[in-house]
Structure formats: C-alpha cells, structure tokens
Predict the 3D structure of the following.
Amino acid sequence: MTESEIKAMVSLLEDDDKEVINHIENQIYSFGEQIIPYLEDEWARQFSPDVQKRIENILQLLNYKVVRTRLLDWVKNDSTDLLKGMWIIATYQYPDLQLEELRKKVEQLYFDAWVEFKTDLLPTEQIKLLNSIFFHKFRFRANTSNIKAVSNSMINTTLESKKSNPIGLCVLYILIAQKLKLPIYGVNLPNVFIVTYKTAEIQFYINVFNKGLTYIKQDIENYIMNLHVTSRELFYEPCSHLDIIRRVMRNLIVAYEDLGDKERVEDIKRLLDEISEGEFL
C-alpha cells in the first residue's frame, strides 16, 4: 500500500460509524509494525483530537503485539541475553529504542570498568573494587525517593538517570560483572532483589541497592526468618534471566497501578501470564 493510500485509509478514522471504524482499524492492524511510522506521521498532521486518540490506541495495540512477539521469541531462543530481554520490556514504553544503542552504552561501561579492574584479587576484594567503580566512578545509586517509578523498570532510563530500584541496579551490575568474567548472578529474595558471587568454592551475597553491602548465607537466613516466610532454595541460589524479566514485569505492573494506568497494567499482566509458570514472589 502506498503512502497516499495509507493517508486515505487513516482519514476514514474520522467517520462516526463504528462499523467503518472497526473495519479500518482491522485493515491497519493487518499491516503489522511496518505501518507504525506512517501512523506516527499521520498523528502529527492531524487536527482532530478524536482521530489522534484513535491513532494512539492503534499504535498502542500494534506496539503491544510487537513487544509480545519479541518477548515470546526471546523466551524461546535468546533468554541467555539479559540485555535483550530488558530492551524488549523498555520498548513497551519507548518503542523507538534501539538494542544496539543500549549495547554500546553497556559495552562502554564494561570497558571503563575493565581499565581499572584487577583479576588477581581475592573475590571479596574484587567486589569492593567493582563496587567502587559502579557507585563512585559510574555514580549509580538507589532511587529511594520514587521506588515505584515506571522508569526503574526501563534500562534506558536507568542508564541515563543513574538510579533505579533494586532489580534495575542489579541488572546493570550483573551485565558489567559478567563481562568482567565474574561469577555474579541474580537472587530472587522476597521484597528485595540481590546478587550472589558463586563458585564451587565460595558464595556470598551483595545488596546492590545498599551500595554493594555483602552478606553471608546466615544473613540471608536471618532475613527470611524475620519476614516469617518459609525458606526456599531459590532464596539462596542464582535465578535465571527469565526470572529476572518476570520480576521486572511484576514491578512494572505495580508502577502502572500506582499511576492508575489500567490499560498498561492489563497489557503487562497478559504478557507476564504468557511467560510465567508456578508460584512467584
């Protein structure tokens, strides 16, 4: 379909006949994501608030379908790529965000860390050095003033603002640490997300939200006991990247609920249902 034909089709969205509107919307949906740039251009040219609102609704549904397709494909084929999973979630709010743009930023962080990093240190000393780089050189910090913000679940805004919630900070910490060949993994604790340094010989825990404070297993046991929660193996062991993405999505649901955005809450819940199994925190 040519651009002029698309314009003519979009102009029919001004019609008051619901059947006509439904027919046109179904036609537009049939083109998939390739029609999104044309719709965005048409939205900018429109003077009718009603038509703009209809275009916005179409764009939101089209973007949802794109995110859904990418997310299901990631779960099936690319779930070892944590950054890609975080990018897919971010494109729900920022559909024009490019994966390569994120990769370049994370790669630069890794390079800047690598320049100062030393591999001949004891594990605890390596973490002290990484903490110094992450919190002092890069200036990442906890977003304690707005813990429920949508931006906390968007890796691009975390990279820009340098602040996030526990899991948002942990994701970047994991990405940098693993590029440095450190055995750092996420841990799905109730109420807070942390990371663990784990090899066959040693394991300890790191609270990235609290400036990299380290814990031993007994500290985690005490934390679980104080919460009056039944202890589970997953509270002590590395979780998968898929688990991380699921938890990010649950945080995102809470963030949109806090804003009263029911449509986005339902969108994320549907996506989460499609990639979830069993009982979660």
Notes: The CA atoms of residues 253 and 268 lie 6 Å apart. The chain is about 60% helix and 10% strand. Residues 3-78 form one domain.
